[in-house]
Amino acid sequence: MDIALSAEDLAFRDEVRNFLDTEFDAEMQAHLKSRGSTGMVEWQQKLYAKGWVAPNWPAEHGGTGWTATQKYIWESERSLRGIPDVVPFGLVMVANVIMAFGTDEQKEYFLPRILKSEDWWCQGYSEPGSGSDLASLKTKAERDGDDYIINGAKIWTTYAQHADWIFCLVRTDNSGKKQEGITFILVDMKSEGIKVNPIIGIDNEHNLNEVEFNNVRVPAKNVVGEVGKGWTVAKALLAHERTGIAGVADIKRNMRLIKEAAASEVNGGQRLIDDPGFQQRMADIEVELMALEFTELRTLATMAAGGFPGPESSLLKIKGTELQQATQELRMEIAAYYQGVLPTDMDPEVLGHEFGSDARRAFMYGRAATIYGGSNEVQKNIISKYVLGLE
Amino acid sequence: MNFDYTEEQQMVRDSIARFVQDDYDWDTRRAIVDSDEGMSRQNWQTFAELGWLSIPFCEADGGFGGNIVDMSVVMEEMGKGLVVEPFFPTVVLFGGVVARAGDEAQRAEILDSVIGGETLGAFAYVERQSRFAINDCKTTATANGDGFTLNGEKVVVFNGENADKLVVLARTSGGQFDEDGLSLFLVDANAEGVSKVCYPMMDAQRVANITFDNVQLGAGALLGTEGAALPVVNDVVSEALIALASEAVGIMGTLNAKTLEYTKTREQFGVAIGSFQALQHRMVDTMMAYEQAKSLLFKALCEYKIDPASAEATIHALKVLIDRNGKLIYGEAIQMHGGMGITDELDIGHYAKRLMMINATLGDGTFHRSKFIESTYAAA
After folding, report:
1. DSSP-derived pairing of the beta strands A140-144 and A223-224
2. Which domain holds residue B306?
3. B1 in a domain, yes or no?
4. Which of B1, B295, B301 sits opposite A69 (nearest CB)?
5. Which is deepest, A214, A347, B53, B364, by most CB within 10 Å?
6. Strand partners, B165
7. Which residue in chain A is spatially nearest to B5 when comparing CA positions?
8. What is the CATH number of the domain that holds B320?
9. How distant is the Cα of B242 from the closest Cα of chain A, in angstroms?
10. Are residues B188 and B237 both part of a single domain?
11. Claim: this prediction has a pTM higher than 0.90
């Protein structure tokens, strides 16, 4: 039972601080703010150059080989500076699948390109008719010589408008149970027959899309794992996804922003941070957050010791997303009337407020967190079956 | 970074678990609770022989020299078995004060016999009006020659019925609420002028209201520096809060396990009730509540080990979460056991009642949330 940082850990922390303070300079911050995905690619390439873009990859494939403590230090220092995490679809999701189930050829081609952020990935799981009941998916892949012909549609596809590749679950067989006959396949977004239709979100932004497949021809060598075993592949990915999803470091940052804002916001001459009702709401979130941080550390420590995350990891997604939303809600409320400000280029001086629109966008976009990656209700079904053993 | 217990800690854990399993089954425990003293002297001797009573005391005082994690392991296991023998009042509170405040002679005299199982102790710090404010103290000790004269009343003294020795918090100067002017005194439970009214609590603790009527104390009765008791008491309280949280975590895990098992075997409408999604999602909630409480306990343990002062906010937060999650867990345990859950016969209600008393001890969730806010947002 020990969290004391060793001399090596402290030296590592200095190195991280030094790197982030030097490389995440004003220019990079401006890039990220104004250029969206292009800015993100530039940042990820800087991380790649340093060898730090893939903390969750094994060292043999170009990962960092960090200990649990080092990962924790990295996450804390990153979020402290408001630096967004890497875009997960390539570096976290599909990479882990390729490493675990891919052929040597797939590994050699895709993994270096993912590391260098040369390819932008998106995820083709949900369909208009298949949300929480993912296994009911209907997008069909039919064998034609050395290729598959794909027909159907995927939906809620984040960043499909930027993507070079999409990893999809498709149906290759209809004869058995619905979980059988699903195949995991990689599709080049430049293929003929793919159409991306934007969906404007509740946050008034374009992040989501519908992706149509009309007779899209995909080489059979793009199947990852066995044909018909895509469900197993997807489930293994979920376990990886779950561990990073709590977003503790980012919630901590939200909490700090809330405290700063509550210290400057005044109601009838009293600072919001001195209001007992508001203090209690902050405390209720913070107490859960302090616990969640250690739940995440417990998971990291287990994984660093070579173990598989225990039951404590399954609550990371549920609790993490609940707390993300709780902090987003609180920050919205601090903005009072200004929480309703739409995206604007207006000078805060003219508008009269700094963060209203940011808070609104974070809150609105944040609603997705309890829905994606398996809705929290589906998570509870999974936990009750696989952790509690309830049928 | 690691959240493992040492081999030694595992051994202590196993030995308490074995005791609970072999010698502390539910009927045995019930007979102990119903006995005259509400505890088993024989068990207490066993605790002494197995070294459990020595764990928090330093080696110079004849103890095992254990740290906060060792203490936590003991308390968690005691929680799982719902052990009623007065480990918390005697070792954690009474022993904790003597170990911190006592001089060499006092420690030698008292701790030796605590470790040996000969002395049962109690810490008398609650007054009728004081609620959770330990500084709110009307009991007085006035200088009298070389010694002191003690007057006043302490209530709900844990183990007050069976304690041989008491540590009493009394005011030697200042007003009722002053933080300065408090002192600690070692008092024989059967000294002249000490009288008590004993009563059992819902968690089977035997407590007492103890009155001190011109009790004459020698100079050697004063523990620590006159007028400077509060910081010492606060240190003991911090450690005691971690101990109680550990016990609570043991109870929460047990309640969840028993409830889960019950829903897998209890059939209604022709199926196990655990097959109902309405119950499944709630059992996921109680599982998460338990894991979160355990995580925050780990945080408190790790911080306390590095520097007790650095754990202050975490300890307040821990008591808040134990209160909140404890209520969820015992509430659901009772509800899911249905009619059986509200019987005295089943152990579920007894685990629930101990959790409730833990919540009410040394400040409840509301109290500690205010303390957390004070320590966290005051400087913002």
Report:
1. unpaired
2. 231-377
3. no
4. B1
5. B53
6. B121, B188
7. A1
8. 1.20.140.10
9. 14
10. no
11. yes
Report the CATH fold assignment for A120-228: Butyryl-CoA Dehydrogenase, subunit A; domain 2 (2.40.110)
CB nearest A388 (choices: B287, B302, B303): B287
CATH architecture of A245-386: Up-down Bundle (1.20)
Query: Mutate which of A252, A290, A313, A323 to test chain B, going by most B C-beta atoms within 10 A?
Result: A290
Which amino acid does the sequence have at A18?
Answer: N
Closest-CA residue of A relative to B72 is A1
What are the residue ranges of helices labelled H in B35-129? 41-49, 68-81, 87, 95-101, 104-115
Q: Which two tokens stand for residue B67?
A: 């740290």
CA distance B276 to chain A (A): 9
* Residues 6 or more apart whose Cβ sits within 8 Å of residue A177: none
Structure tokens at B154: 């302490």
What tokens appear for A334 in the block?
A: 């601090």
Nearest by CB to residue A297, choosing from B1, B294, B324, is: B1
Chain B residue with the nearest C-alpha to that of A256: B380
**Is the Cβ pair B292, A319 closer than 8 Å?**
yes
Number of domains in chain B: 3
Instruction: Find how far residue B306's CA is from the centre of its chain.
Output: 22
Per-domain boundaries in chain A: 7-86, 120-228, 245-386
- Structure token pair of residue B203: 């968690």
d(CA B230, CA B178): 10
Burial degree of B250 (CB within 10 A; 0-12, 13-18, 19+): buried
H-only helix segments in B82-209? 87, 95-101, 104-115
pLDDT in tens, chain B (380 residues): 889 999 999 999 999 999 999 999 999 999 999 999 999 999 999 999 999 999 999 999 999 999 999 999 999 999 999 999 999 999 999 999 999 999 999 999 999 999 999 999 999 999 999 999 999 999 999 999 999 999 999 999 999 999 999 999 999 999 999 999 999 999 999 999 999 999 999 999 999 999 999 999 999 999 999 999 999 999 999 999 999 999 999 999 999 999 999 999 999 999 999 999 999 999 999 999 999 999 999 999 999 999 999 999 999 999 999 999 999 999 999 999 999 999 999 999 999 999 999 999 999 999 999 999 999 887 65
Residues of A in contact with B275 (CB under 8 A): 390-391
**How far is residue A256 CA from its own chain's centroid?**
21
Per the domain annotation, does B143 fall within a domain? yes
Name the DSSP class of B5.
P
| Residue tagged active-site, from A127, A241, A265, A296 | A241
**Would residue B308 count as lying in a domain?**
yes
Strands B121-124 and B165-171: parallel
A241 flagged as catalytic: yes
Residue in B2, B275, B288 closest to A315 by CB: B288
What is the interface pTM, i.e. ipTM, of the complex?
Answer: 0.95
Residue B293 CA to chain centroid, in angstroms? 17
Q: What is the DSSP pairing of strand A165-171 with strand A121-124?
A: parallel
- Is the domain of B91 the same as that of B192? no
Chain A residue at shortest CA distance from B301: A1
DSSP characters over B88-100: IIIIIIIHHHHHH
Q: Can you state the angle between helices B7-23 and B41-49, rounded to 10 degrees?
A: 160
Find tokens 């052929």 and name the residue. Answer: A103
pLDDT in tens, B14-31: 999 999 999 999 999 999
B21 domain-assigned: yes
Residues from chain B contacting residue A68 (CB–CB below 8 Å): 1
User: Which among B68, B87, B119 is the end of a domain?
Assistant: B119
Per-residue model confidence as pLDDT tens digits over B261-308? 999 999 999 999 999 999 999 999 999 999 999 999 999 999 999 999
